[in-house]
Amino acid sequence: MTRILIVDDEPQILRALRINLVARQYEVALAADGSAALREAAQWHPDLVLLDLGLPDLDGVDVIHGLRGWTTVPIVVLSGRAGNQDKIEALDAGADDYVTKPFNIEELLARVRAVTRRTRAQEAELAAVQLGDHTIDLTNKTISGGVRLTPTEWHILEILLRNPGRLVSQRQLLTEVWGTKYLKETHYLRQYMVQLRRKLERDPAHPVHLITELGMGYRYLP
After folding, report:
1. Angle between helices 170-177 and 151-161 (to 10 degrees)
2. Strand ranges inside the chain, DSSP E
3. Is the peptide bond before 102 cis (omega within 30 degrees of 0)?
4. ∠ at Cα 130 (179, 207), nearest 5°?
5. Do residues 199 and 147 make contact, with C-beta atoms less than 8 angstroms apart?
6. Fewest CB atoms within 10 Å of the CB: 12, 103, 123, 137?
7. CATH of segment(s) 128-220
């Protein structure tokens, strides 16, 4: 079931969207301001975010920046701001689509389906990844050679593999895997990276695929 986080400070919109999405078999969480949205996203890990820009505590563009600091979750903006500059700012910040209020619910649902399809297609392209001597099937959670990973090891590895060549910050990994309360627990990452290298690298002491960027984060090199 696809999980959608709805962020809006208008109760009637939250209620209407929740009723329509639940009726179509989506799992829904609600947030009435930007701070709650960032907390809920970190704890609940939605598959898509519907985000209003006019929030009482944070501007919606700031929420987009906050999310993009650690996640690639699709974001569809819902806003009464119809100006082109507002749309450009939201899309440049990392939003995937922009729907102007008042909106037609069927059009919005079509946008949600389209963004979800694109995301799944991108994920399918990464279904099988080669890491050294091992073929990693991200869909079925299997690794050639009989290698077995714990759920936490899988979570960390999947984040790295879905960002080939890109530096993934310690903050992003800690937030996605353990939550925002664990941002200082960088020793967790060191321990798990040691275990992953031991299982997947030819020479764990001299890794060539799972790389540490000191003081910053980690990088997967194909």
Report:
1. 140
2. 3-7, 27-31, 48-52, 75-79, 97-100, 128-131, 134-137, 142-143, 167-169, 210-213, 217-220
3. yes
4. 70
5. yes
6. 12
7. 1.10.10.10
Q: What is the pLDDT of residues 79-93, one digit of tens each?
A: 887 777 888 888 888
Please give the Cα distance from 165 to 167 (Å, whole number): 7
Angle between helix axes 105-125 and 11-23 (nearest 10 degrees) is: 60
The whole-number average pLDDT for the span 101-130 is 82
Q: Which fold has domain 3-125?
A: Rossmann fold (3.40.50)
In the sheet with 217-220, reading across from the earlier edge strand, the strands are 167-169, 217-220, 210-213
Return the closest-CA partner of residue 174 out of 69, 89, 84. Answer: 69
Full strand arrangement of the beta sheet holding 128-131? 128-131, 134-137, 142-143
Q: How far apart are CA 166 and CA 185, in angstroms?
A: 22
CA distance 101 to 13: 10
Which of 72-76, 168-172, 195-199 has the least mean pLDDT? 168-172
Residue found by looking up tokens 């969480």 in the block: 29
pLDDT over threshold 70, residue 123: no
Every domain of the chain and the residues it spans: 3-125, 128-220
